[in-house]
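Appendix B, example 12.
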Amino acid sequence: MRDGYARNFLLPQKKALRATDANRKVFEARRAEIEARNAEARASAEKASGKIDGSSYVLLRQAGEAGQLYGSVSPRDIAEEIGKKTKGIDKSAVILDKPIKTIGLYDVRVRLHAEVYANIKVNVARSQDEAERQARGENVIASAIEAERAQAEAAAKELAAASITNDPSARAE
């Protein structure tokens, strides 16, 4: 770390102290208080982790036929959804490797403390019915494509049958 960073930012903001004998004694005197505060914060984070770890949250969003969202799901959206059921979670606690841009089921980590993490499942869907189908393990995009293909085949067969009955050369004279 460069000297200027400490001199111009850390020291004036009281985020760091110079390593003098007097400052070391002050730190050692406050060390037990700091460690107790950290242990208390960790205990409350573990309690919160027990409440949300393994839970599932449904986010309804608008999306195209192929499942592509009109926008994306951000850590803020997930934090707000968690906040509806439990004490608020800061958006910086939600860890996403990349933004969620398609419907589906996603595993998301939530950092409640430097040493405490919770894993949640986020179900992004277009409707509550679709979310329930996804939760059961159905691939709703593949199902929609399959249903469309079956409908197109049925329409093609119907059209072929109609063209045979309307064909003037097929009529007996």
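The longest strand covers residues 104-113. The longest helix spans residues 21-52.
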